[in-house]
Amino acid sequence: MRIRTAQKQLIPEYGDRCITPPWGNPHAHFRGICYWKGVPTDVRKQQEALMRLVVPIQCADPFWMAVAMPNLKVPITSVGEALCYRQQIRNLLSERSDFEVLVSIQLHLGTTLEMIREACCTEGTTLSGRPCPRVRLAKLYPAQVTNSPIGVDETDILCDRMMVVYEEMVKQGMTLSIHPEVYCGDDIFSCEEVFIPILEKLSRRVPDLLISVEHISTRELLEAVLSLPENVVGTFTVHHLIGDTADFWDGQAVSDPFNFCRSVLREERDRLALLGAIADPATRGKLSLVLDDAPHTKKAKENGAPGIWIPGPIAASLFLEVCEEHEIPLEAVIEVACLNGPRFYNLDIPERTITFERCERIIPEEIPIPGIGDVLVPWRVGKSYHWQLAERA
Ligand SMILES: [Zn+2]
């Protein structure tokens, strides 16, 4: 890392090696099944095999924390289930016992105030003495956009019953994480924009609610999040900064299922808006990088399952690359990839450093999923990436 002096500040730059703090991933999908009563054996085996494979890969350097989303085949709705799921993830991380796993519950019309209070009971304190709630966030999936059987209908998102739950979340300091889409039938390109008025109403009606708007893909939603009060923040993914609508859509239908995710990949205008907001010190404080790493078997992807999966270290490399290409300073990368997410969840960021070195590597073709005779296909197989982690000192 080279350091140049400007206005008496030391500003980190990309060099042949660059050094950052450890990275956060405040939106992860680890699969698995917590309670599998009623789930067919083959589905359970497949979900568990995926979990065993992806947890160690996604929880390796440069990442030190992840927020595990609750939309499993049987969604996690109670604190007991969330804590059980956290333990299952931790059990796969014996090598990385310092990895911070945050878990979430999925909101639905049956969520009670007691569930919210129970979630926010503390279990000790951090090194700097901050209280640690057991579950720090609740996730809201609108109905029909995510295959979730308990997704909340768009008209119910602002109903009285849900309002009371949001108010309790404010009292407890719990974050609402939102999948920002409304079901629009075959029109998969309008879902995000249609959600904007709902978000704005929600923010007006519960002004103190901490809201994380996940995987922003359009300029319109980005502008909406940036214009809302500071307790409304947004996340973005690497694939939405690089991929394009043309990568999966032929004008009529999905032409490449391996480039299909929700929210869908967008146009250059959207990518430039996101990159501009990351570069701008006035706006990037509201934004965090997430992997939103959705692993599916090759068979499921070929059958249209939405989601993109990139091994964590390669996703970090692609992010460094796209930022450098757009002359976004490394300090901006550090802010959105390392600092903002953990800060939003009140975590103390570890003091150790991560070193990347320039390289020329190829994204692997496929990774076998042991025990189920299928493979996991990383995004952009065969393409190159240009940063790798240096050996840990
Ligand atoms: Zn997700």
Question: Could you characterize the architecture of this molecule?
Answer:
- This protein has helices at residues 41-58, 79-91, 113-120, 160-172, 191-205, 219-227, 238-242, 268-279, 298-302, 312-325, 330-344; strands spanning 3-6, 9-12, 17-20, 23-28, 63-68, 100-106, 122-125, 131-133, 137-140, 175-178, 210-213, 232-237, 287-290, 354-362, 367-369, 374-376, 384-389.
- It has 393 residues and is of the alpha/beta class.
- It has one domain (21-348): Alpha-Beta Barrel (TIM Barrel).
- The strands form 5 sheets. An 8-stranded parallel sheet has the order 4-5-6-9-10-11-12-13.
- Strand 7 and strand 8 form a beta hairpin.
- Helix 3 runs parallel beside helix 4 (160-172).
- The model is unreliable at 1-8 (pLDDT under 50).
- The protein binds zinc ion.
- Zinc ion binds next to loops.
Give me a quick take on this structure:
With 393 residues, the protein is an alpha/beta fold. It contains eleven helices and 17 strands.
